């Protein structure tokens, strides 16, 4: 495994060289938000499939930049979430408890505006080019946030798998890489874990 300085340098490179892709992810997130405000209510299966896309994007970026560890982890995570998502029914997503909704919205904002690694030069730059969909922690924060907002898609397995990934990368980021900002990811992952254990065992 690469050393912490090598990992940090790689994440910095990805965040700054792929800003166009990050901006695209921000635009897609904004379009989804506008749709929801206008009354769009996607099915649980659709949301699960959509959330796999940024996870897959992180896997692709990891492989391109020579990080097989993240490449393998996020490829397996994307495939497993896809399989679990295909088992979900086509009914609409459910509203979570208030605490989960509040935490979920906070996590979405945290993931979308994640300021670490990006040399934006201004606050505005983080609002459209933060490395969501490019590197692990902001992407997991965003996906976990959406998962909380849609009550874990009503699937214990789906929620617990995602929460586990968030906990691993959050703890790794704080303890191994010294990125204290990733405490936010740990909080979101614990919240999804707590909610996930209360969901039914099968989708």
Topology pattern, helix = H, strand = E: HHHHHHHHH
Distance, first to last CA: 36 Å
Q: Can you give the mean pLDDT?
A: 92
Question: How would a crystallographer describe the biggest sheet?
Answer: none
Structural category: mainly alpha
Number of strands: 0
Tell me, what's the shape? globular
Poorly predicted runs: none
Strand content: under 5%
- Measured as a percent range, the helix fraction is over 70%
Number of structural units classed as domains: 1
Number of helices: 9
Gyration radius (Cα, Å) is 16 Å
Give an overview in words.
The chain has 203 residues and is an all-alpha fold. The chain has one domain (4-196). 71% of the residues lie in helices and 0% in strands. It contains nine helices and no strands. Helix 4 runs antiparallel to helix 8. The mean pLDDT is 92.
Task: Summarize this structure as a short list of keywords or feature phrases.
single chain; 203 residues; mainly alpha; 9 helices; globular
Topology:
Elements: H1 4-17, H2 19-37, H3 44-64, H4 68-86, H5 98-112, H6 123-129, H7 136-149, H8 156-176, H9 183-196
Concise overview:
The chain has helices at residues 4-17, 19-37, 44-64, 68-86, 98-112, 123-129, 136-149, 156-176, 183-196.
